[in-house]
Design brief:
Blueprint (H helix, E strand, L loop, with lengths): L29 E4 L5 H13 L4 E2 L14 E5 L1 H9 L6 E4 L3 H8 L2 H6 L4 E4 L5 H12 L4 E6 L7 H10 L3 E6 L6 H4 L8 E3 L9 H13 L4 E2 L3 H6 L3 E4 L2 H12 L20 E4 L1 H7 L5 H4 L11
Helix pairs in contact: 1-10, 2-3, 5-6
Length: 307
């Protein structure tokens, strides 16, 4: 149901993205790192090659650099990011299609923080708290109370969640789940919540716990907004998420920005700027929730792609 909370299985792959073929050349060689069986990696590589014909794909981290000096490496997915961080790469490293929690976990290790932190950045796989709160506000068109389970691993989300709830006129109740505590039981302390927002926290949401949480919330008629399109397939009501072409558009913006070429500040890891909405219509009908065209049209999709 959910294989690999930080990787490419989160994504609803919707064909090869369309990107503008012409564009400014990069000042450094571009190398794409992904697993041999990564469908998303192949799609991202194919889309980027339209814009950057000289990019190098499927190279091993640490291979000799190209003629133009240290390359820009793009790690697609968690396994590729882990390999890249362990290698002695020169030049910038950009992570895509890895969750914010997994990225922080990998990059914050002692060796990485000492040797790589200054030259690593990311476009996270999970949609921003602001995108999810905007979706919830549009779905219910009222000042509903949003419940969120957080652990130590996802504590960094507290501030952006509070800011986003205030921005979109929602109430927020947080429940902190201690290590080795049953996440399903923790739901009983969110009685005031009118909707549950599940965040990308692999210590809380495994395939088994997500299934149990969905069963528990369904019995209570409590809608759940998930953290990826895969969770919508699994039974959540909806989510804000990024398709592959949204990832490519964000990545092009980052690659062609000043930070990676030394002419501006190093770009901070961030959530995707391009996103769209996924709805589970069967769940919506069972909960008696009407999903309007306005809700379905939410998001900031990549240029050149509709729907």
């Amino acid at each position: 149901m959910l294989a690999g909370l930080g990787g490419a299985s989160w994504w609803a792959l919707q064909g090869v993205p369309r990107v503008q073929a012409a564009g400014p050349g990069l000042q450094r060689e571009l190398r794409i790192l992904s697993g041999p069986d990564s469908v998303a990696g192949r799609q991202i590589t194919q889309a980027l090659k339209l814009r950057y014909p000289s990019l190098v794909a499927e190279v091993e981290p640490g291979a000799p650099e190209g003629r133009r000096g240290p390359a820009i490496h793009v790690a697609v997915g968690t396994a590729a990011l882990r390999r890249a961080l362990q290698a002695e790469l020169k030049g910038p490293l950009v992570s895509v299609m890895t969750s914010s929690q997994t990225y922080r976990q990998l990059v914050d290790t002692a060796a990485v923080a000492r040797d790589r932190a200054a030259v690593v950045t990311a476009i996270h796989a999970d949609a921003s708290p602001a995108a999810q709160m905007q979706l919830i506000a549009a779905l219910f068109e009222a000042r509903v109370t949003v419940g969120v389970l957080l652990s130590e691993a996802s504590a960094y989300l507290e501030r952006p969640l509070r800011q986003a709830a205030t921005q979109f006129g929602l109430e927020l109740v947080l429940e902190w789940v201690a290590p080795s505590t049953d996440a399903v039981r923790s739901l009983t302390r969110l009685r005031a919540a009118q909707v549950l927002l599940a965040v990308a926290d692999s210590t809380l949401y495994t395939p088994d716990t997500l299934r149990a949480i969905l069963e528990s919330t369904y019995r209570r008629s409590l809608p759940v907004v998930g953290f990826s399109s895969a969770t919508v397939v699994a039974g959540t009501l909806a989510t804000a998420h990024c398709a592959v072409d949204d990832v490519v558009a964000d990545l092009v913006d980052l690659l062609e920005g000043p930070g990676l070429h030394g002419s501006g500040p190093w770009p901070e890891p961030r959530f995707a700027q391009h996103w769209r909405v996924a709805i589970n219509d069967n769940v919506a009908r069972s909960l008696g929730i009407t999903v309007t065209d306005k809700v379905r049209a939410l998001g900031h999709q990549a240029p050149g792609r509709a729907g």
